[in-house]
Amino acid sequence: MSVTHxxxxxxxxxxxxxxxxESANLCQPDRVYWCDGSEEEQKMLLEQAVxxxxxxxxxxTKRPNSYYHRSHPDDVARVEHCTFICTxxxxxxxxxxxxxxxxxxxxxxxxxxxxxxKGRTMFVVPYLMGPPGSPMAKVGVELTDSIYVALSMxxxxxxxxxxxxxxxxxxxxxxxxxxxxxxxxxxxxxxxFPQDNLIMSVGSNYGGNVLLxxxxxxxxxxxxxxxxxxxxxxxxxxLCVESPSGEKTYVAAAFPSACGKTNFAMMIPPEEFKGWRxxxxxDDIAWMKPGSDGRxxxxxxENGYFGVVPGTNTKSNPNAVRTIERDTIxxxxxxxxxxxxxxxxxxxxxxxxxxxxRGNPWTPESKEKAAHPNSxxxxxxxxxxxxxxxxxxxxxxxxxxxxxxxRRATTFPLIFQASDWGHGVYLGAMMGSETTAAATGGVGxxxxxxxxxxxxxxxxxxxxxxxxxxxRKHLMHVPRVFHVNWFRKDDQGQFLWPGxxxxxxxxxxIAERCHGQVGxxxxxxxxxxxxxxxxxxxxxNFGPAEFERLQSIDPGEWKKEIIAQEELFVQLHETMPxxxxxxxxxxxxxx
Length: 591
Ligand code: GTP
Ligand code: SPV
Ligand code: MN
Description:
By secondary structure, this protein is an alpha+beta fold.
């Protein structure tokens, strides 16, 4: 062995050990540290991160066991333009992904990795995505030269010995290499090799680019494996709605990045909804597979939340406020003088002085935001007071409803239901949403984001739609599909719907539809609630007229929408399933 290995005692898996050795020879770290996931280790790594200035320890009284991190100012979000799917052919990756031939990309990244860890430690991070013992869980090993990444992975995944136990002597694990390099955006590449179950990520330290279990494995590689193995890897939250009579309904929902999954998954129903309870199974990713009883079962592969901080307060998301009270790493929020954190939209008074996310002095008069719009919290799911016990169930939860929803100022009503599975797939496939700060680039432009998976689908999007359509055959109990829009605005740019906890009103109708407890009226878009069935009791300044306005279908806006969909059909013309063309035609003729 050319470099010293520390703490290698939990695995004897030859393939793992050989691959780590080979990678260390390439990257030339000073030492290789094998993470075991223990509490003592976490304590030791946190101390090290504080000593080297990577983390700042927050006020222990105000924010116990919590830490502050500032990223490089050019490294604050996912980078879709330098994310690559390296399948043997360009066709397999499809026109919505960047592609490069695997051998060429490997050569290029290996060139960047060579000796890149000199003077650094390579952390070997074994992790499990999914509950221990779950037949749907997968093992990954991430090699990283960032202590921030190693510590974040310990929160976001089930990390350490538990992963080695699940893997045993098998060779079926995801290989991930991450090297920060010098964080120069020109040398930033997030590369996926689905056929090799391999990820190479260089030049970034931002969550979605480097916490390789999350978007890289659980979605991009995951979706590829899912198609091959007959399951689904989706950018979806999973929640449980419990009615006053104790009836449980499991719901999965796909909203694009920074469009409300975490908020919806942790929602607390309004006062008028006595006896209704929401619990969270997951807030970002769902792995779903048909069970032997013909229902679709979902697990949350994650063990933590990497959530948007700005706007989090006791009105919008009380459960998130509780979740981040302790044991949390905050990235790119503002730091207060008493070593607590602050962000736009936080409860309580605005601090008179703070240090902003770039490290500059900040006062309420400052023009710049104190917290970056994509600042994030990294917290264990155990901190969520509404965590569903089912989050640990190896077999997952049976899904009754799938919800799609984008951020749309116009056109889309608050709620409607697809007429059948195929129609639901069409609605998901045509999803459009205004871009957000979760990825670099413009904010607020409507783009197609099919199933909220545009940045995360690890293969040809047309084949992905086909896979969705074909899942129908493997299900005896097909989830009902719905479309929601929390973001419709009036001419003054004000939201027409209060959102957040009030979304319970929409969810109640959805749950009742799933159980055949409530009717619906047919419209050109699909099924909509009868006014009498949609509960608006107790909503201030909101009556039947407001509801009708939210549900209104403007033929002019819909013509534009159908034309805008054309772009995706043209882009995917080689692989777009015929069924989706038919659903579009049908809508057009109904118009
Ligand atoms: P990722 O973690 O990026 O995948 O995002 P997410 O889908 O989990 O988004 P999140 O729940 O963190 O929502 C982020 C943004 O959506 C914040 O700006 C929220 O204020 C806003 N938001 C969430 N729910 C609602 C809602 O019901 N109404 C309105 N108007 N805004 C909402
Ligand atoms: C998203 O952008 O959809 C996120 C945050 O959930 S990240 O993990 O950075 O991708
Ligand atoms: Mn996400």
